[in-house]
Amino acid sequence: MTLKKLTISGFRGYSSRQTIPFAIPNGKEGSGISIIVGANNSGKSTIIEALRAYNGSTSPSFGTSARYKGTSLVKIEYHKSNGVDVLESIRKGSSETRRSKSGDPLRIFTTPSRRQFASYFYKSFQDRDEYIKSDSLPTTRTSSLSNNFTARLFNIEKDPNDFNEVLGEILGHIPDWSIDLGEQGQHFLKFNTSNHFHSSEGLGEGIVSLFVIADALYDSQKGDVIVIDEPELSLHPAFQRRLMNVFKKFGQDRQIIIATHSVYFADPQAISNGASLIRVRKINGKPTVWSLKEKTRKAFTSIAIGDKNNPHVFGLDAREIFFLEDNIILFEGQEDVIRFPYVEEKVGINLQGNVFGWGTGGAEKIEKICAVLTDLGYEKVCGILDGDKSQLKPPLDSAYPKYSFLILPADDIRDKGAIKKPAKKGLVNKNGVLDPKLIQKTQDLINKVNAYLTS
Fold this sequence. Notes:
This protein is 28% helix and 22% strand. By secondary structure, the protein is an alpha/beta fold. The strands form 5 sheets. Strands 7-12-13-3-14-15 form a 6-stranded mixed sheet, with helices on both faces. Helix 4 (161-171) crosses helix 5, helix 8 (294-304) crosses helix 10 and helix 9 (334-347) crosses helix 12. The longest helix has 16 residues, at 439-454. The model has no long low-confidence stretch (mean pLDDT 92). This is ATP-binding protein. Keywords: ATP-binding, Nucleotide-binding. Residues 30-288 form the AAA+ ATPase domain. GO terms for molecular function: ATP binding; ATP hydrolysis activity. InterPro entries: AAA+_ATPase, ATPase_AAA_core, Bact_Antivir_Def_Nuclease, P-loop_NTPase.
C-alpha cells in the first residue's frame, strides 16, 4: 500500500486546500523519495505535522494556533492506493477532530527535526507498530522527539545487526555501543573508545541524530512511509551524502518523505528515477505547493544526468535555487557567471537576483530550465542570452510570458577567435577589458533585469 497524496486545508497557514503528491517506489534507487524544499517559514513543517497527525490511538486536538483563523475548520485527507483516510474538525470553532478510515491503515513512522533524547532513561520496549501508535501529534507545536524513543533502543540492542549495518553505511564505520545501567538506577547509551567509554550525554548532536534516523529505517518494511524532517541538521556534508545514498537504497520499495534545506538531498539521480520534488512557497502569506511534473522530469533528466559534457548544470551550486524565494537569473554558460561580476563592477551596477549555478550549459537548455522552474512555482526568472542566440528569444517569450529574456549587447561575454567556429566579438576583450562602447548598453541591460526582478 502507498500514500499517493496528502491534502491539507485549514491547518495552520493552509487556508485553501493544497495537495502534496508523493513519489511511488518503482524499484529504482530513490524512486520512492519525496523531497520537500522551500524557504524558511514556507509551510514545510506543517506537512510533516499533518503526516504525524495520522498516528496515535486517539484523534489529535487542534488548538487555536493550529487552525487557520479564517476558517477554523481543519481537514486532512490521506489518499492511499486502497482508499482515503480523513482527519477533520468535528465542527467549526472546536479543537476536537474525528477520523474516518477505509481499507488497511498506513504505517507512517515520523522523525522530527530535533532528535536529541534523554541521556538517562528507564527500561521499556516498543516495536515499530507500538511506537507508531504512541507517536501522536502533541497538542502544542514542537519539533522534538517523542519521549518514547528510548524504548526503541532496547529493541535494537536485542539484535543490533541490521541497525548497525545502516548506521555503518552512513558513518563509514560501526561504533562500539551498548546500553548500560548507572548507579542511580537509570540506563544510558554507552560508547566505547579504546580503553574508556562515554555516554550519549557527551556525544555530538550529529551522531545522536543518526541513531534516530537509522532506527527509522532499519526495521522498516516494503510499503512503509518514513517521514524525516531536516535530516541534515548537525551532519557533516560527507554524512549527508552517505545518508542520501541510504535513503535511495531504502527508497526502492518504500516511501521516504523528507523536508530539507540541504542541496545534498535534492539528488538529481533520485529525481530522474522517480523521486518527487515538491516546493512550498508563500503567496500573500499563504503556503502554496508546487511539484515537478512527469513530463518535465524528462527534461530535467536530460540536463542533470544525460549531459556528460556539462555534469555541473544541476550541481550543488545550481540546486541552491530550490531553497530560494525567487528572482533567478539564467546565464548561458560558466564563463558568463564568472565574468559578469567584473562587468557589473566596471559599469557600477549590480544584478539584483540569484544567479543559477554555473550557467545552463548552453542557450538551448534555458527552455528546459524554465520548465523546471515553472513547475516549482518560480515567478521571477530572467534569462540573458548571448547576442548570437537572439533568435531563441521569441519562442522563449511565447512559452514563458511571465519570465523575461534579454539579449547581451555582444555576441559573447568575451572575444573569441576563429577556431573551428567564426570569431565572436564579446563584452570583454582578450585582455579582460570591458569594451567602452558597450558600457551604456550594458548598464541598460542590467537596469532592465533589475526593474523586472524588483517590480
